[in-house]
Write a structure and sequence with these properties.
331 residues, 33% strand
Length: 331
């Protein structure tokens, strides 16, 4: 009976192992941009005029000051710049984004006093990290992807602001503030109403390697995503860091990051979707769950193999058990 007990244990272990593999979460761990209890962030570096507010702490970090000052707070957000002139701030992940296909969704808020405001904020997926500079608070001549939320028009006739645009940096080309990046724009859309919106404002960036880059925005109504743009194959560094930055000049605004979530996506083919608002290019919808179905078949075959191994072990054990009983009869 001990042999059968071992065979049963092997069978149960094989079934449990297959279940664990099937239930593994394929998503990249969400990255909360807040502070730990020791006033540090495990996942992010930050600098400039960035203010990080957590459940019980308020930390102000200034480049030109040697000491940090803290006091009790009750809100949770990362304020890249406050509604004051000549500020800039940034926050960058410490670990690179290495997934082949991914989706980044973040909630943010652009708000302030008065009718005139600026300059803007940016999302970065670049080789460089944590380097202040003149492009919405981060470095110029970057290598990778920049998504700019530009709230002040310098010189772009016929374009409605705020304006959201993408730029692919090659490490040598500069962003031209004089014409709001018109000559290096990959794709973009007007986003009137994104500043001071009455609902949570969000952006969702989806990237499939050698297929497409898509940006969707939520600022008109909750759970209503408007397509900003979708572009064909885009070259993004295989190892790049996720970051956010913002800057103000003579005009100012509060630029807040409230939450950030990133996930790995399985490769899937795009399908034609419904009409979208505001984008320069026609939208095409992706269904990330389709990739998960493919992964599900993979785990199904793993289970089949494990089942076969368990059955084979049971058969061998049973044969050995019968042989041992026959020998015991003749002894």
């Amino acid at each position: 009976m001990q042999l059968w007990a071992r065979i049963s244990l092997l069978w149960l272990s094989a079934g449990w192992f297959a279940t664990v593999l099937a239930d593994l979460d394929p998503n990249i761990k969400s990255i909360p941009p807040y502070l730990d209890s020791d006033m540090q962030s495990r996942w992010w570096d930050f600098g400039g005029d960035t203010i990080i507010r957590a459940d019980q702490y308020l930390l102000l970090h200034h480049i030109h000051h040697s000491e940090d000052h803290a006091k009790t707070a009750v809100h949770r957000y990362v304020r890249l710049t406050s509604d004051r002139g000549s500020q800039s701030g940034w926050i960058f992940s410490r670990l690179p984004l290495t997934a082949t296909n991914w989706q980044i969704e973040f909630e943010f808020k652009i708000h302030g006093k008065g009718n005139l405001h600026g300059d803007g904020m940016a999302l970065w997926i670049t080789k460089q990290r944590a380097t202040p500079g003149p492009v919405f608070g981060s470095v110029d001549k970057f290598e990778g992807l920049g998504i700019f939320f530009d709230t002040y028009k310098n010189n772009r006739p016929g374009v409605i602001f705020p304006y959201v645009m993408a730029m692919i940096g090659d490490g040598q080309t500069s962003y031209n503030k004089g014409n709001d990046g018109k000559d290096t724009e990959l794709a973009g859309c007007a986003a009137r109403g994104i500043r001071g919106a009455s609902i949570p404002t969000k952006a969702r960036l989806t990237y499939f390697q050698d297929q497409s880059l898509k940006l969707e925005l939520q600022y008109k109504s909750e759970e209503l995503w408007a397509l900003c743009f979708e572009h064909g194959p885009v070259a993004i560094p295989s190892i790049a860091y996720l970051g956010f930055s913002a800057e103000t000049g003579e005009l100012s605004d509060n630029f807040d990051i409230i939450s950030v979530e990133s996930k790995n996506l399985y490769a899937s083919q795009p399908v034609e979707g419904s009409k979208s608002e505001g984008g320069k290019q026609k939208g095409r919808a992706y269904d990330p769950n389709r990739g998960r179905q493919g992964a599900g078949w993979g785990w199904f075959f793993v289970k089949i193999v494990l089942f076969g191994v368990a059955c084979g072990g049971a058969y061998v054990g049973y044969t050995m058990y019968r042989s041992s009983k026959r020998r015991s009869r003749f002894d």
